[in-house]
Amino acid sequence: MRDVVIAGVGMTRFGKMLDRTFSSLVTEATAAAFADAGASAKEVGLVYYSNSGAGLIQGQESVRGQHAVRGSGLEGVPLINVENACASGSTAVNQAWLAVAAGQVDVAVAVGAEKLNHADRSRAFRVMVSALDQDRLDEIRADLGTAGTGSVFMDVYARFARWYRERTDATREDFARVAVKNHAHGALNPKAQYGGTLTVEEVLGARPISGDLTLPMCAPMSDGAAAAVVTIPEIAARWGAEPVRLLATVIGAARPDVYGELVPDTARRAYAMAGLGPEDVDVVECHDAASPAELIVTEELGLCGPGGATALLRAGVTTLGGRLPINPSGGLGSKGHPVGATGLGQLVELADQLRGRCGARQVEGARIGLAENAGGYIGPDAAVASVTILGAA
Fold it and tell me: What is the mean pLDDT of the chain?
């Protein structure tokens, strides 16, 4: 297998953009990625397009990517559509890596886009419910204690949070502290949907969503796109790019009736692929679709021992300026969560961090970045996870 790099990245702002089309979002993100790489669409041999909800939101099925790339210069390039819940974007990168590493093509593009906002808000909730086993909906809803009238995934995350509190010293205040931290980070990110100064009291006093979760602890419905140009080091050098090394990209699948093994197993395989350990990681983007998930994933990634994430949070270790900043972009809770673009958006942040391009939110001396996604629901855990590790050139 050949060495692979990400030569360029680009993304739109994440937010509520009812007036934007998929093609306009994709064109903006890919144009930025090509400019970053010093490349052009004519050099691309294969495109992987990630999206999760266009069928239910817009009615666009079957060839979503072939329509979405209209106007981007990628028309006519062989394209494979990727759908893998919240890990769709990172799965597209995984497949682009495989195509380049195996020598199928020399240049591949991973691009993800999502438009979850619609005049009919119920469509976005149907996207979330569609990630459950449709043959077992009544059983799952009864197990979660939900009538299906709200956000079913916040019910899932509320249960994860309850289980986490039962086995650690975590409090509702800790969950609120994660939201406070990530909104402060998001305020430094011009591409973030939200960001600003919150207090723990404000987060705890906000509108209840499910269990311990209040509105600022929950990722918003978002629109946006992100892209990465994947190639070999020799071509990146010819372009004059400033690449980052794609050290590991691993996809995991959960087993039914098993909880707590999915992310740790995926992370172990990623560390082995990269030849690194948790102690080597300098900056993390993790899937905080609800704020408690950041604490849970910090432990599942081996970044601390069981029950140790709250101590890191309280000591400021995971805040910008700390030893191991987590979600300097603002995370999903502040930056936004356009499902098909989320994993790619994480990698845009990490690539920029490793190249020292993040301004006020820059993690000084960052050399190794790790991104984690988890999505869907198999019960009692997520259905899919991915871990991607990038290294500075």
Answer: 96
The mean per-residue pLDDT over the stretch 241-255 comes to: 98
In the prediction, which pLDDT does 147 show?
A: 52
Measure the CA–CA gap between 261 and 246, rounded to whole angstroms.
Answer: 24
Nearest-angstrom CA–CA distance, 85 and 305: 28
Question: Could you tell me which of 174, 208, 173 has the C-alpha nearest to residue 295?
Answer: 174
Predicted confidence (pLDDT) per residue in 212-227, tens digit:
999 999 999 999 999 9
Q: Please name the CATH architecture into which domain 5-119+222-248 falls.
A: 3-Layer(aba) Sandwich (3.40)
| pLDDT for 61 beyond 70 | yes
Q: pLDDT band for 143, please (50, 70, 90 cuts).
A: confident
Residues known to be catalytic: 86, 337
Q: What is the pLDDT of residues 63-99, one digit of tens each?
A: 999 999 999 999 999 999 999 999 999 999 999 999 9
302-314: average pLDDT: 98
Q: CA torsion, points 187, 208, 146, 179, in degrees to nearest 10? A: 30
Residue 340: C-alpha distances to residues 15, 93, 364 (Å): 14, 12, 29
End-to-end CA distance of the chain: 18
Q: Using H for helix, E for strand and C for coil, what is the string for the chain?
A: CCCCEEEEEEECCCECCCCCCHHHHHHHHHHHHHHHHCCCHHHCCEEEEECCCHHHHCCCCCCHHHHHCCCCCCCCCCEEEECECECHHHHHHHHHHHHHHCCCCCEEEEEEEEECCCCCCHHHHHHHHCCCCHHHHHHHHHHHCCCCCCCHHHHHHHHHHHHHHHHCCCCHHHHHHHHHHHHHHHCCCCCCCCCCCCCHHHHHCCCEEECCEEHHHECCECEEEEEEEEECHHHHHHHCCCCEEEEEEEEEECCCCCCCCHHHHHHHHHHHHHCCCHHHCCEEECCCCEHHHHHHHHHHCCCCCCCCHHHHHHCCCCCCCCCCCECCCCHHHHHCECHHHHHHHHHHHHHHHHCCCCHHHCCCCCCEEEEEEEECCCCCCCCEEEEEEEEEC
| Spatial CA neighbour of 298 closest among 267, 328, 259 | 267
Written out in words, the top-level CATH class of the domain with range 131-219+249-392 is: alpha beta
CATH 3.40.47.10 segments of the chain? 5-119+222-248, 131-219+249-392
